[in-house]
């Protein structure tokens, strides 16, 4: 296990020496890795660093507001509203790899725009300060840096965001369903302390709302335990909890017809759906 205080002092010195008097940028997603790296870099060089959070529209419920509050002490924080641009880039794309590529390319464009605006000379790579740490060690560093629990204890979230929890084309309607369903799942399964818990919009099926037949979305719920994400086991969730999730997801969104629970381990499945 890493000696947290020594690690923090060492990394702050390393980052400060590397940046010197230059301006620098770092990508801030809200996950524990990027948040911890940004906090370390900001400790090292202060407002010479511009942490850049790009709101892709593919984020969890309340993510942008949480970033704004958690990192309000960083005067140089830049929040970019790129929701419409990302949706435009994703329009009509159904292939998972093509979606990831479109998201990655658009993110680079957004990030480079801010880098030019702040006249940045250096890029702080998120992986560099964290490269030798396990996830639980990163969390220890985050706690030592006094990052809020919502950051330090946060479950992993994929880089492409909710786009990989939507099978097929990403639309505003599917995003709204996925965002609310993921919020419900994270709340209801917190007591199980999963490595990752998620909800995915995987297709449509017939259901009944009131006296009417509907063709609504199918939401798959997944909760796994793992050490490092390389392998994972589906968690055994009690029936009452699953029924509560189903009731909330279908009750809070009239466009959802069914909720399923995924019992597949990794392998043969992956943790995410795309």
Structure, briefly:
The chain is built from ten helices and eight strands.
Describe this structure in words.
The protein has 274 residues and is α/β, with parallel strands linked by helices. The chain has two domains: 4-152, 3-Layer(aba) Sandwich (Rossmann fold), CATH 3.40.50.620; 161-261, GMP Synthetase, Chain A, domain 3 (2-Layer Sandwich), CATH 3.30.300. The chain is built from ten helices and eight strands. The strands form two sheets. The chain has a four-stranded parallel β-sheet with strand order 3-2-1-4, with helices on both faces. Helix 1 packs across helix 7 and helix 4 (83-90) packs antiparallel against helix 5. The longest helix has 22 residues, at 96-117. The chain starts with a helix and ends in a 13-residue tail after the last strand.
Number of strands: 8
Rg from C-alpha positions?
20 Å
Series of secondary-structure elements, N-terminal to C-terminal: HEHEHEHHEHHHHEEEHE
Strand % is: 15-25%
N/C terminus separation: 33 Å
What would the principal axes of the Cα set say about the shape?
globular
Strand order of the largest sheet: 3-2-1-4
Number of helices: 10
CATH superfamily of the largest domain: HUPs
Task: Count up the domains.
Answer: 2
Query: What can be said about the biggest beta sheet?
Result: 4 strands, parallel
User: Uncertain segments of ≥5 residues (pLDDT<50)?
Assistant: none
The overall pLDDT average reads 94
Would you tell me the structural class of the helices and strands?
alpha/beta
- What is the CATH class name of the largest domain? Alpha Beta
